[in-house]
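Lab meeting prep.
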Amino acid sequence: MEMGEMWKEIRMLRQQLGGREPAPKGESLFSLAILEEEFPPNFQQSNVGEYDGHADPEEHLGRFENAALLHQYSDEVRCRVFLGTLVRSAQQWFNTLQPISIQSFEDFSTAFLQRFASSKRHQKNYLSMFVMKQQEAESFREFVHCFNGAALEIPAATPDIMISAFTQGLREGEFFKSLVKKPQSSYDDLLARTKKYVNLEDAQRHNRMEQRPGVSGVEGAERRGRKRGTGEGDEDKARGIR
């Protein structure tokens, strides 16, 4: 009892001074209910990876909550399993929490998100999509790939916004003119129409390469064969071979 009172006074002094120190050995950061909760007989460990304090905390927490729902973890089990995903600086942070300060998984997750809020990935908004422009040397396939990747990071973007941003980002050309003349009503239809143009561009590029003068392709092989034949014949004549 005396030791417990002493530690309470020490913690109060630390709080007044603004300092946070690791919990004394022997004192748990979890409540007694969390510690005494037994794992279910069919317990399966979540496979959500480790968190070291540098990645987006919301993404890590979201993956864990999905796994916890799948495996039907109780609230108390969630606390202990989630602790097992923290490593390095995240584990060090956990050790600085006050004893018995975590009474539920909500306490744990709230403290976790607050501590690592600075590591949260900046959420892009739909305005960033209008900044994307197809460069002069950028193929249509490359631009579509980059645009779709950016669109996946902006779940709030509506189909109308995505169609408008995509059209405005295109370099002026045949496809741009066709979209202006005949706009698409849905983004899925736009992607289907885009795929056809990508295939057309690929075919045109391949055709230009085939027609380019050089020693590549079937024509190049025929040229090399003729040269070899001529060379061999000249060499034979020089040697006096009939």
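Slide two material, second protein:
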Amino acid sequence: MSCIKQIFSIKPRINVGAAFASCRRFHAELVRHESSGLPIVHHSKYVCELSPTHRFPMGKFPRVLHFLIKDQVITEKQVWVPEIASKDLLSCVHTEDYLNNFINGTINEQEQRRTGFPWSEGIVRRCRYETGGTVLAAEVALQRGMACSTAGGTHHAFPSYGSGFCLLNDLAVAAKYLMGISSPKRKVLIVDLDVHQGDGTAFIFKEEPCVFTFSVHCGKNFPLRKQQSDLDVSVEDGLEDKEFLSTVEAHLPCLLETFRPDLVLYDAGVDPHWEDELGRLRLTDQGLYQRDLYVMKTVVSRGVPVAAVIGGGYSRDIDKLALRHSIVHRAATQVWRECGM
């Protein structure tokens, strides 16, 4: 806690047309909020009930928003509330069979073990709201230049199954949705700096030229079988702040210049942190802050909108973890103010 305060004292082929034929614009007209501050997307239903012994830190999501307001990083007027993601919306990425089984609770035990979650109506609801939140953050970013959700980054979900605490691929749904509603040629760059490779996202977009997937991840970490992103940078165990940032700096500007995206989706996972229970890298709070600051400054300075999600992070100390996840919102707030957005 004291450390945080010290730092922040200042591709499968998918028929997109069919998927959207019966799906109205997620928000036909985005409401202009009174606040001129950084848009933060949050829903109270980002959480659901789990066993107290479950490894996934479900309680972190509301605590992220709590600390942002408590520390006066944002005000409640900056919060945008998403709609639940409809089945039609999800079908732009996920198969009909999978969605039917997922929504109706006919997922078998083996598939549930692969996801890490027992099925419940609550888990379905929270995943659909989380996906809706990422879609809304992307929409708002296109309108306002930048937005951050307090959840999202479920990059291990594949079209026909979930994996690794990821049941719906929110990043893929957001990218596909925004490519389908008004600008089929809109180009999306997904910058994934979670400690684990975004294998589901890489697979979904492997044959999609309008989406570029860029992943910096720990090579010896989950998933054991990696997919091929458009650009994969596999790093060794124990990598520290300076080396991690140098790795990102070596690739991001070039990608922005050559791919020229219309939107960046940024997965700001905090599991590269040295205290993370499932990470194997050695980043500090300050290192994560500098990473997030660099990514968003670099993107925004080129006039490209960016929507950020919190990605992975694992600790039994929920408050400490939530503060760590709030780093991306704090860095985004600094960029927002410095750039006069």
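Talking points for slide two:
The first strand starts at residue 40 and ends at 41.
The chain has one domain: 2-7+37-48+67-338.
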